[in-house]
């Protein structure tokens, strides 16, 4: 049958896409369930990398090295250092006592291992601690002419261009000679400057007495001068009971204004990843995360290929791309950290007489944790706003815009399943019987109220037309909004419109009669 008209905008008609409502709902539920599993997996992966022992290990170590006061001077600890004198008191007092634990509290030798130190008897000091100083050159700033007679020296703030790389003092040991920085080591961001690696470096001895003599010698020979801008104290611990490394950095900055500003970093990290059964559960979550990443990347690639430039016009698509980028960065960080730990850990543990630079590993491990935290934040943002607001709100708004009550398919599906179960258990009559009974009751009620048979039959005919037309043009099973209309359907629409016009005219007449009667009564 030839088509009389088409409800579309020019050209050939679009193909009809017929989907059953249940299939559409099932697909939506599957997608939501899949993404919910992804979120659960990501949460397990994120929170599985931290545990309460990290907090308590940081707490006891910070209490030992930051809050312990100098003997005989209760107001002086690392946090309260304000002068060079206070700094040397800390070095020869709380730092020295905190690093060397080689005997029980009864002064009985605790370990047979040669020159080993176990802080709080549980935390092995890895290698030896390192102390590093960065300096600036003289005449790096300009003194006003009127004050040049009073001040012949001028030391500016620290920058890489102002750094002093020449030997000074005794010029004998490494602490008096400049060591070139390692390009792979991260820079340190302090309160008054950004500091690179290298500088004037020395390591402490395994012997407590030798280390104390070293500190006294440096103090008497003025290792700290006006050109000093920062001193780093770095060392690492390992607690086998909880399988955690604690990387500690104490920083004393000497700003150009004078005085000392102290800061610190305590990183408790799990560098040995796969030891217990729980660790292997986390490993399985990591593998699952990579599988999800591949699936989501494939889906987005298909969307870009299908929609081309139109894909990038949606804010939600940009959020999806941002989430994928963060996921790839997190995976890259994880792979890089594991490779570096595998390559460096054994070498760092071999020589116990050298400084073990675990700060480099902890630095990238912390960055990996930060990336994972940002990823899970945006993943939940996508779940709440993209899945809820963008889809459901748009559908409901579209339904209201065409004057149709929105169908909440999920609720209808659950209600339908519930009714089917009751009908099978014979706890409820079939819906068709109830509908027929409802129709009969309505007709009988109309007769009792004085409507004649012609009016009742006309109303039933119009109701049938209405149901048939709504099924045809407002069915949720049809996804295409522009449907072709045949000659027969056009005729039915025309007759339906004529009947509606007649009914409207009939109602208007009755309303006019009623209004005239009301006016006459008044």
From TrEMBL:
Family annotation (InterPro entries): PKD1_2_channel (IPR013122), PKD_2 (IPR003915), Polycystin (IPR051223), Polycystin_dom (IPR046791)
UniProt-recorded name of the protein: Polycystin 2 like 2, transient receptor potential cation channel
Family, as annotated: Belongs to the polycystin family.
Cellular component GO terms held in the UniProt record: membrane
Cell compartments where the protein resides: Membrane
Classification via Pfam families: PKD_channel, Polycystin_dom
Keyword Membrane: yes
Topology of the protein relative to the lipid bilayer: Multi-pass membrane protein
Polycystin domain residues: 77-272
